[in-house]
């Protein structure tokens, strides 16, 4: 729901519409979590479950909604569902939108980012409890700024990182990017070492923008940034080449995380449990396709 739509209605009516949509979003989220768990998957939660909540001019809080009690009850139902499983059995995460730039040169963007990340952290508290304030339940973002001196950008990021709420800071992780400065080696040296923030390794981004390290070295070091916290890494498996664009995700993968690991494993990583977000455009269907092909490979090896 956009603010222009919200403004077309008298405020009490607009809040009723918004509340109904939030509740519907939460019903869909719980159904999606159950579907994912039944299939042995984790679930990346949508960032848009609570439209307009972080828009300053909208001035909306949860208890402004006339159905806030129902919304509270539904969030509790989601929380109780997640309480049944250790994160190693069912893992949920967020990938806040690209406009969240903690190291932006624009102070207003930084202010909004801090607010937005806290909103995501609040949602995770609602969906998994305060015990989920760890990298098992990550909020994954990009640096998203490559113009300027990398050490100065990193210094600004670190300063703003410590302005985050504890519930956001305790979950924040950073992903290597498909162009620009922020390759695994740069993230490791300038961000991980001073803060301990884990690095999300994206296979496609590294193929497009490797930096100083080959895939095997980057994979090993990124794994180490999670294992330092005794947490399974949550990495991104993706493949590009759609419409001739090496950065554009394919509808269906040609390989799989298992095959990728076989090619890039080291003695350090070979026994590490890794969770993978499958960033392939056909989503559920693409995951099922990967699983079917992996099963065929296992049978052939037997």
What is the gist of this entry?
This protein has 302 residues and is mainly alpha-helical. The chain is built from 11 helices and 7 strands.
Search tags:
three-stranded parallel beta sheet, mainly alpha, 7 strands, 302 residues
Any chance you could write out the topology, listing elements then pairs?
Elements: H1 3-7, H2 11-38, E1 43-45, H3 68-83, E2 92-94, H4 107-128, E3 139-141, H5 150-161, H6 166-169, E4 172-175, H7 184-195, E5 199-200, H8 203-208, H9 215-227, E6 234-237, H10 257-264, E7 275-278, H11 284-301
Parallel strand pairs: 1-2, 3-4, 4-5, 6-7
Helix pairs in contact: 2-3, 5-7, 7-9
Give the overall pLDDT as a whole number: 96
Q: What is the topology, as strand order, of the major beta sheet? A: 3-4-5
Which spans of ≥5 residues are poorly predicted at pLDDT below 50? none
| Count, helices | 11
Computed Rg:
20 Å
Shape: globular
């Amino acid at each position: 729901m956009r603010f222009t739509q919200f403004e077309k209605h008298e405020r009490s009516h607009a809040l009723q519409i918004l509340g109904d949509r939030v509740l519907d979003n939460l019903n869909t989220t719980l159904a999606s979590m159950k579907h994912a768990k039944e299939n042995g998957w984790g679930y990346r939660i949508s960032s848009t479950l609570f439209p307009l909540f972080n828009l300053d001019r909208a001035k909306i809080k949860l208890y402004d909604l006339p159905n806030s009690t129902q919304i509270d009850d539904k969030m509790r139902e989601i929380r109780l569902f997640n309480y049944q499983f250790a994160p190693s059995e069912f893992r949920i995460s967020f990938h806040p939108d690209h406009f969240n730039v903690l190291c932006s040169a624009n102070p207003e963007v930084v202010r909004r980012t801090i607010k937005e990340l806290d909103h995501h952290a609040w949602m995770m508290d609602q969906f998994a409890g305060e015990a989920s304030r760890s990298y098992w339940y990550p909020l994954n973002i990009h640096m998203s700024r490559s113009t300027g001196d990398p050490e100065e950008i990193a210094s600004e990021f670190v300063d703003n990182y410590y302005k985050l709420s504890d519930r956001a800071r305790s979950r924040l992780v950073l992903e290597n990017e498909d162009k620009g400065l922020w390759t695994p080696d740069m993230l490791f040296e300038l961000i991980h070492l001073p803060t301990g923030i884990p690095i999300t390794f994206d296979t496609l981004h590294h193929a497009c923008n490797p930096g100083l390290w080959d895939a095997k070295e980057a994979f090993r070091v990124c794994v180490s940034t999670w294992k330092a916290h005794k947490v399974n890494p949550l990495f991104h498996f993706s493949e590009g080449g759609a419409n001739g664009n090496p950065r554009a995700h394919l509808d269906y993968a040609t390989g799989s995380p298992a095959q990728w690991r076989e090619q890039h494993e080291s003695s350090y990583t070979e026994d590490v449990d890794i969770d993978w977000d499958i960033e392939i455009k056909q989503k559920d269907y693409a995951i099922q396709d990967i699983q079917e092909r992996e099963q065929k490979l296992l049978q052939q090896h037997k």
